[in-house]
Amino acid sequence: MKSKLPLIAVLTALTTALSILVVIPIPATSGIFTLCDAGIYASALLLGPVAGGIVGAASGALIDLISGYPQWIVFSFIIHGLQGYIAGYLAKKNLPGGNWTALILASLWMIVGYAIGTGILYNWAAAIPSIPGNSLQNIFGILVAIPLNQTIRRLRLPALQAFIDK
What we know:
Blueprint: H1 5-21, E1 24-26, E2 31-33, H2 36-47, H3 49-67, H4 73-91, H5 99-121, H6 124-155, H7 158-161
Antiparallel strand pairs: 1-2
Helix pairs in contact: 1-2, 1-3, 2-3, 2-4, 2-6, 3-4, 4-5, 5-6
């Protein structure tokens, strides 16, 4: 069996790069809206929970480091890592609603995780304004990741077929 590590590294770099290039500030929490969730979800759906967790953890931490939010690195590593793992794990469970349900549940974890992180780092009053921005970011991530996953699977690219989770 071939190693998924090079593909995971490429997806981590791509998720990080897209998240750095497309950044919308969220003034209420001094945070940012990025494409991170789209990359995490696409990775989790294509390669499974472990790859989704690795891409989530690594890209989340790198984005904060590069963007100048070092106080968030540990939080993002944990939150996005579990988000990717949860998305990939639940996608394999054939839940009613399929991948949509899996990604919505993973999104709920991310939204709650960042609300808790915001409460710890700033104050609990700031946690509430973080919820709409994180919700929108996740909705956008889901709307990008599911069609992207379906398109990649339909293409049946020989170089990817050995790595894609069935």
